[in-house]
C-alpha cells in the first residue's frame, strides 16, 4: 500500500490546474498523516513540494478568492499546520490566516451554520463540516482563540439536528430557505443519504473529537459509527446510497468506504470504540479495489452534489446519486485511503 501511495504522490498533479482546492487537500491530509504514522521523510517531501507550488511567501494561495465564500477551499489549510511544525516557513501560517479571515466573514444561516458556498446560499451540506470546521478548531487552538473552537462544535451539533434522518443517518444537505427543489418543504432536508457525505461527516466528527475531547461530540460520534458499522456490506464496503440498499444499480463505493475505514480506526485510537473487524474488512475491501499497472484505486464516484451544476440540476433523489460517473484514482478516494492506512500503521505500532 505504501508503495502505491508513494508512486501516486510522485505522479500527482494539482487537481484544478494549480488552484488551491479541497481535492488537493485530501492528498495533503493523507501525506501529513502518513508522515505522522511512519516518520518517513518522503511523505513530508511530497507535501512540501506540492504545497509550495500553491503558497506564495506572503501567504497568497494560488487561484484562491476569499470572496467566493467556498467552504471547500478551507480543507487544504489543515496541512498548513503540519507544514508549520515540520517544515517551518512563515508562509504557512500567513496562508492559514487568510483562510481564517474568510471564515470570519463567511455567510451563515440564521441559526449559525456556514453556507456551503456563496453560490449555494442558505444551504448546509455535510461535506462542508469536514471542509471547514476541523481547520477552524486547529486554528483556534494554535492562535489561542477558544471561541472559534466553541463555534465549530456548535455548528457540528446544529448540522446534525438539521439533517437528521430516520434510522440514525443524515441527509446530504439542508436548505434553510426551502427554496431548492431538492429540499423537503417541511424539513428543508434533501431526500437521500449519500455515502460520501456520510464519510465527510464521520471524519469531521471524529477529528473534531480527537482535537477537543468534547464529551457530547464523543457520544454522538460513537453512535454514528455504530450505525455505520451496522450498514457495512458483505464485501466490506459501503453503499453509494446508504438508505436504499434495494435500489437497482446501487453499489459499494470506494471513497466513502475509505472515509469510514479511517473514521472507525481513528475513533478506536481516540477511545470512542474498541478496535473491531469492521475496519479490517474495510481494509481488505479497499485493497481489492487496487488494480492495474500502475495500480489504481477503482470505484470512486467522481462528484455528487445538490442543485445546479454544469447545466444539470441535481435533485438529491436516491436515483440521482447513481447517475454520476465512477472513476479511478480520484483524490477524494486516495486521500482518505492514505488516512486510513496511516491509522492502521499506528495501530500496528501500538500493538507491537
Question: Mind explaining what this structure looks like?
Answer:
It is a single chain. This protein has 352 residues and is mainly alpha-helical. Helix content is 52%, strand content 7%. The chain contains 12 helices and 10 strands. A two-stranded antiparallel ribbon has the order 1-2. A two-stranded antiparallel ribbon has the order 3-4. A two-stranded antiparallel ribbon has the order 5-6. The longest helix is centred in the C-terminal third of the chain and has 21 residues, at 331-351. The protein is globular and about 50 Å long. The mean pLDDT is 97.
How are the SSEs ordered, and which strands pair?
Elements: H1 2-11, H2 22-38, H3 41-52, H4 78-86, H5 90-105, E1 123-125, H6 126-142, H7 146-163, E2 173-175, H8 195-212, H9 215-230, E3 238-239, E4 252-253, H10 254-269, H11 277-288, E5 290-291, E6 296-297, E7 300-301, E8 307-309, E9 312-314, E10 326-327, H12 331-351
Antiparallel strand pairs: 1-2, 3-4, 5-6, 7-10, 8-9
Q: Low-confidence parts lasting 5 or more residues at pLDDT below 50? A: none
Report the major sheet: 2 strands, antiparallel
Helix count, DSSP H or I runs of 4 or more residues: 12
Give the terminus-to-terminus CA distance: 20 Å
Radius of gyration: 19 Å
